[in-house]
Amino acid sequence: MSSITTLVQSIHDQYQLPWFGLHGVTHWARVYENGLRLAPMTGADDQILLLFALFHDARRANEGQDEGHGRRGADYAASLRGRSFPLTPGAFDLLYHACAFHTDGLLDGDPTVQTCWDADRLDLARAGIRPTPERLCTPAAQALETIAWATDRSQRRAVPTIVRQEWRVSGEEVPPEGSG
Known about the structure:
Blueprint: H1 4-14, H2 25-42, H3 46-55, H4 69-80, H5 89-100, H6 111-121, H7 139-142, H8 144-156, H9 161-164
Helix pairs in contact: 2-3, 2-6, 3-5, 3-6, 4-5, 5-6
């Protein structure tokens, strides 16, 4: 993958909402970390998890109900594919599907897609919604200890270290934990 910092900056340049808002960069980082926690048990592709985290909410127009934002994010990923990140056609199909349908409440699908959806749903507590096992796709995500771990991080609005270190978010001060 070409520079993740460059990709994050490209997404930032077009993002319409507060960068550290409810659906912004700290949410994306928690989604990615949630996915990485699940991946050893689900067999999910780490690169698709990262790209899903970055693109699934990248084209939101508001912080509330935003019909079609997942498909807009998937289309945005398609516009950058090849220039900003490489992905085989099959892997891109999984990424596109995961982004486009992440708010539809679906449970069945490819294990990588399911892991993407679970990673996002595990961060719902930031919006006052507690994840429940019956709305998660994989046994790894349905485990009560996983839900408790993710819910705690989500409610605290934890700012994963990848925001500061690997993604090198700049131009705005990264909020302290609890405000991101």
